[in-house]
Specification:
The protein is mainly β. The chain binds copper (II) ion (CU). Belongs to the multicopper oxidase family.
């Protein structure tokens, strides 16, 4: 506890230093040198990991009293050749013992099932809106035609349904789905609308990685919430225009979760499903783990890390080898402040034999792609409800950018600081996976050399990405702080 308070105090003083540096127009790198001693990445996380101009509420430690819930795997249906049915609905959920909380969910009262696709699958999904308000079904990270992507143009009114069809053409990855109605995304996600998509392919099935769903292949959806004194999710009371943050962490909708594992390699598919909070995940023992996948697929090689940071909507797959850890200690996944997110209970059983191969993928950023000129510029700016992209707020009638189908272009995304220094914006583009060329002219870190659909951009940072769209139509690009998105920090690219 003492440590946590101390770190918080350092963080506050760093915010002050960060603010001064920005006013002096010092480059971000120099700021780190001033502070010396601490680990470089920890330092920058603490300085720029704040996701709001306000001080960020800490997360309560998980007491570990509830076993982590694992989302059910949605059954395939053969009738009428519709493969899946996904319903958005209202319900009541016992998040706290003995109390019902009003929530939203897909095919249940809270969150959603996991949808499993294989590369090459021709998928039909019957989407049904059983809510009392309009919603959409957006498949985050999926490379599909814009008319099935579920952006704000595709709202289903209460009681409406729509059958969508697409072919899965991308490689094995962990994606997710959530609503995207204009101005209401943040509240609907907050109330519980989010689910997972796993894509598998020949490669993923042959690598020998842990794949026993719920046993050694564990999805973890991280969402922070504020509950009122009646233990309800009162979005309008909790709402912050600059990103809604809560003091209570739910993982897969589980309050105070713990995860029981065998002494084996366990794959954790981390999804930051929060409206606005950033997480730097690490083990409380300081032990390292390996990252094996980014948002849209496997890394070429596993990357050894002691921590990994995810901003809203980003994913990372990591493998923790519990057979190699000292299980005499209390083991837990913690965040940058030391808050206990997920305690682990390690059983004596040795578990399955799985491996982490040295080579997992053939992702490449070509010389040609690196030499392409910047042909799209995107500038993120503002705070609260005054957020813009290229100086404009979202207008569904306006096309901001156009790009040819199947042609790779380089986008440069710049996070323009404001008077208070600015904040991280997680930038997401629909309908495609992209490659990071550079961050402020430098090669991206090893664990970002893979397919991405969302990228964190720090204040004053300039990022270059190479992106190609496989399909036509109008796609959204936006900040994935959901309140910023709802406040108009969103534009449209038309793929012709
Ligand atoms: Cu933002």
């Amino acid at each position: 506890m003492g440590i946590k308070i101390k770190i918080a105090a350092v963080a506050i003083s760093l915010l002050v230093i960060g603010g001064c540096s920005t006013n002096n127009s010092q480059p971000a790198e120099e700021k780190d040198h001033d502070i010396g001693e601490m680990d470089h990445s920890t330092m920058s996380d603490m300085m720029e990991g704040h996701m709001s101009h306000d001080e960020v509420t800490s997360l309560n430690d998980s007491t570990g009293e509830n076993e982590l819930k694992i989302p059910s795997m949605l059954e395939r249906e053969d009738e009428n050749s519709i493969v899946y049915t996904v319903r958005a609905q209202k319900g009541k959920t016992e998040i706290f013992d003995g109390t019902e909380t009003e929530t939203y969910g897909y095919n249940g009262s809270f969150l959603g099932p996991m949808l499993r696709f294989e590369k090459g699958d021709k998928v039909k999904i019957r989407t049904i809106n059983e809510l009392e308000e309009a919603t959409t079904f957006h498949w985050h990270g999926l490379e599909v035609a814009a008319d099935v992507d579920g952006g704000p143009h595709d709202a289903l009114k209460p009681g409406e349904e729509k059958v969508i069809e697409f072919e899965v053409t991308q490689e094995a990855s962990t994606l997710w789905f959530h609503p995207h109605p204009k101005g209401k995304t943040a509240e609907q996600v907050y109330n519980g609308l989010a689910g997972l998509i796993y894509i598998e392919d020949e490669n993923s099935k042959s690598l020998g990685l842990p794949t026993d769903y719920g046993k050694n292949d564990i999805p973890l959806i991280f969402q922070d919430r504020t509950f009122d004194d009646k233990k309800q999710l009162n979005y309008s009371a909790a709402k912050n225009e600059d990103g809604t943050i809560g003091d209570t962490l739910l993982i897969n909708g589980t309050l105070n979760p713990k995860l029981t594992v065998n002494k084996e390699k366990v794959r954790l598919r981390l999804l930051n499903g929060s409206n606005a909070r950033n997480y730097t995940f690490k083990l409380n023992t300081g032990d390292s783990f390996v990252q094996i996948a980014t948002d849209g697929g496997y890394l070429n090689e596993p990357v050894n890390l002691k921590e990994v940071t995810l901003t809203p909507s980003e994913r990372a797959e990591i493998v923790v080898d519990f057979s190699q850890l000292n299980t005499e200690n209390d083991l837990a996944l913690i965040n940058e402040e030391g808050s206990i997110l997920l305690p682990f209970e390690v059983s004596d059983q040795s578990g399955a034999i799985s491996r982490i191969p040295g080579e997992m993928n053939d992702f490449s950023l070509t010389e040609e792609e690196m030499k392409l000129p910047v042909t799209k510029k995107v500038e993120l700016f503002g705070m609260m409800d005054m957020v813009t992209i290229n100086g404009k707020k979202f207008d569904p009638e306006r096309i901001d950018l156009t790009q040819q189908q199947g042609v790779t272009e380089v986008w440069e995304i710049y996070n323009k600081p404001d008077m208070m220094g600015g904040m991280i914006h997680p930038f997401h583009i629909h309908g495609a996976q992209f490659k990071i060329i550079s961050r402020d002219g430098e090669e991206p870190p090893e664990n970002e050399r893979g397919w991405k659909d969302s990228i964190s951009i720090k204040p004053d940072e300039r990022v270059k990405i190479a992106i190609q769209f496989k399909h036509k139509g109008v796609y959204m690009f936006h900040c994935h702080i959901l309140e910023h998105e709802d406040n108009g920090m969103m534009g449209q690219v038309k793929v012709e």
